[in-house]
Design goal:
single chain, 196 residues, mainly alpha
C-alpha cells in the first residue's frame, strides 16, 4: 500500500485522469464533426476512464490529514485521547479529550474569531475615513446655519405681509363667488329670453 500513497503513483493517477478525459472529449468532438477515427477515439478514452474509475473505487479516498500518525484513533469521534503533555511528562489534572470537549473548545474559538473579525472591520473602516477636509466642512456648516438664521428672521418679519395677503385672497374668493352667482343669474335670464 505504500506505493499507492507515494508521490509517483499520485502523479500517475492524475496523469491518467487527464489523459482519459482528453481522449473522451476528443472522441466526442470527432463524433460531433463526423471525422474519421471518432469511434476509436471514444473507445480508447472510455476504456481509460473505466480503468481509472475501477482503480479509484478499489483504492478508496486518501485522508485529508494524517493525524492518526500522531494520535491513533483521533478520527474516531468517541475516542478517549490523552492531551499533549509538556516536556514528555503527563499532567494528571487534565481530562481526556473527546468529541464533545473538542467541539466546545472549537465553538468558543469560532465565536472569538468572529468577534475579532467584526472589530477589525470597524478599525479598517475608521482607518479609511478622510478627515483632511473637516475644518472646511465645519466652516461651511457654520455659514449655512447663519444664513438659515437670517432667513428665519426674515420670515418672522414677513409674517404680517403673509397675513395681509391671506386676507386679500379671502376677499378675492368672496368676490369671485359673488361674480359666479351674478354670471349664473345672467345665463338663466338669457336662456329665458331665448325661449320667449
Amino acid at each position: 500500500m505504500s506505493f499507492v500513497k507515494s508521490k509517483g503513483f499520485k502523479y500517475f493517477k492524475n496523469l491518467m485522469i487527464g489523459v482519459g478525459a482528453a481522449f473522451v472529449l476528443a472522441g466526442a468532438l470527432f463524433k460531433l464533426e463526423s471525422w474519421e477515427g471518432a469511434s476509436e477515439m471514444l473507445i480508447l478514452g472510455m476504456s481509460i476512464e473505466i480503468f481509472i474509475f475501477l482503480m479509484l473505487g478499489v483504492l478508496g479516498p486518501d485522508p485529508d490529514y494524517y493525524w492518526d500518525k500522531l494520535f491513533p484513533g483521533l478520527s474516531n469521534y468517541d475516542a478517549r485521547l490523552q492531551p499533549l503533555t509538556t516536556g514528555g511528562m503527563q499532567q494528571p489534572e487534565f481530562q481526556p479529550l473527546h468529541g464533545d470537549v473538542v467541539e466546545r473548545q472549537l465553538g468558543g474559538m469560532l465565536t472569538e474569531l468572529q468577534s475579532m473579525s467584526k472589530s477589525m472591520g470597524a478599525l479598517k473602516a475608521l482607518q479609511e475615513v478622510d478627515f483632511s477636509g473637516t475644518s472646511e466642512q465645519m466652516k461651511s456648516m457654520s455659514n449655512f446655519y447663519s444664513k438659515m438664521n437670517e432667513a428665519m428672521a426674515d420670515m418672522v418679519q414677513s409674517t404680517e405681509d403673509v397675513k395681509a395677503y391671506k386676507d386679500q385672497l379671502t376677499s378675492l374668493n368672496k368676490n369671485l363667488g359673488s361674480l359666479n352667482t351674478v354670471y349664473g343669474n345672467m345665463l338663466s335670464a338669457m336662456a329665458n329670453i331665448g325661449r320667449q
